[in-house]
Write a structure and sequence with these properties.
single chain, about 130 residues, alpha/beta, 6 strands
């Protein structure tokens, strides 16, 4: 897995290889320096018009990850998929098993879970 840096002030890092990315999403991650013995995985989905960084700054998931030792992943919508950067949870091609955006999020969640992160929590569960 390849992870690259974001802007200096962001605690999030780009993940470049996280599966087939059928949904054409960008994926960012925050892994705290001190992980819990059995760290959870939180999938944090931003709202329309937001970026993953915006959402993290507003919610503080990365600060909570630092405090409690869990990994947070941030799928990020691309304007090529939706001009308003909304997730397309209402389109069958993005919510069907092994297709679209839900598939990209699932691929990333599964890869982190196998590393080994036994529990998965989610801010939204439409893709599970």
């Amino acid at each position: 897995m390849t992870v690259t840096g974001q802007a200096a002030e962001s605690p999030l890092r780009d993940v470049l290889d996280f599966g087939t990315n059928r949904g054409n999403l960008q994926m960012l991650v925050h892994v705290p320096q001190q992980l819990a013995a059995k760290p959870a995985l939180v999938v944090a989905l931003h709202g329309c018009g937001q970026t993953a960084d915006d959402y993290d700054r507003g919610t503080g998931w990365s600060s909570l990850a630092n405090a409690f030792g869990f990994v947070a992943i941030y799928p990020e919508q691309r304007t090529a998929n939706n001009v308003g950067t909304c997730f397309s949870w209402y389109l069958p091609g993005d919510t069907s098993r092994d297709r679209g955006e839900g598939s990209s999020i699932h691929d990333r969640s599964t890869r982190w879970s196998a590393m080994p992160l036994p529990s998965i929590a989610s801010t939204l569960t439409w893709f599970l």
